[in-house]
Each structure stands twice: as structure tokens, then as C-alpha cells.
Amino acid sequence: MRSGVESYRSVQAAGIAAGQAVLLIGEDAALEAQLAKAVEAEGLRLVVAASATEAKDCLQKDENIVFIVGDLDDGMTLQQAIDATQSNRQHISWSRLPGLLLVPPGLVAHEEQLRASGVLADMLPKPVDADMLRLRIRRAQAR
Description:
Layout: E1 9-11, E2 21-25, H1 29-40, E3 45-49, H2 52-61, E4 65-71, H3 78-92, E5 99-103, H4 111-116, E6 122-125, H5 130-142
Parallel strand pairs: 2-3, 2-4, 4-5, 5-6
Antiparallel strand pairs: 1-3
Helix pairs in contact: 1-5, 2-3
């Protein structure tokens, strides 16, 4: 495992000044590229962490993170999704930042069970609608 500042990558468009950022917890390169484009359109950076542990490191080192996006892998079972969200909560709940959980099509019907397991974040079905993602981020920034 990498440590310190090297524990995450920042994806930033040329010309965007250092500033507020969105943290993505996940390992899907295509999703990372899509989200980078969406958040950069809002003038934000995308910071990527492959795990909840890396996300915790990112949050401790980058005070400009204002929103968290968690990605549930497309092949996850309901129990794996519950375990992943509970791990994320254990590592990053102290940040009290608004967040969004990206839910694969196979788990969309299980929103009630995810909520019952303690998921508090808004949920957005995949494939990701970039306009809806930006709207959720804007709403969170307005609070």
C-alpha cells in the first residue's frame, strides 16, 4: 500500500486552479475518466482513492475535498456492497462530507436493504448520468 500524499492521484484539467475537489472511492478507470470530465466542468478536481483506507488518507491530507463519491463495483453482490459501504463509513464518516453512492444496475432494486444496512448517502444508478451527478454536487455545495 502506498502512503502519504502518494496514496492518491489527482486528475485535474489544465487551467483549473487548485481548489475544491471531489473524492472518488473506486478503481474503475473508465468511470474515473467520466467523473473527472464531469467535475472539471464544475471547476472542481477529482481525487481518486482505490480503497476506504486510501480515502481516509486523502481526506486527512486534502482539506479541499468537499464531496465524496463511492463506486460499487458492477459485479458486487448485495452482501459485498453492504460490506464495502460499512468499511467506507468506518474509515471516512468522521469527515461529515456529503456523498453519493454509485449503484450498479444489479443492486438498484436493493436500495431499501442498503439503507437498512446504514447507507446514508444519496444513491445514483449506473451508468452515471453526468448532469445528475453535477446537480447533486451543486446541491451539496449550496448547503
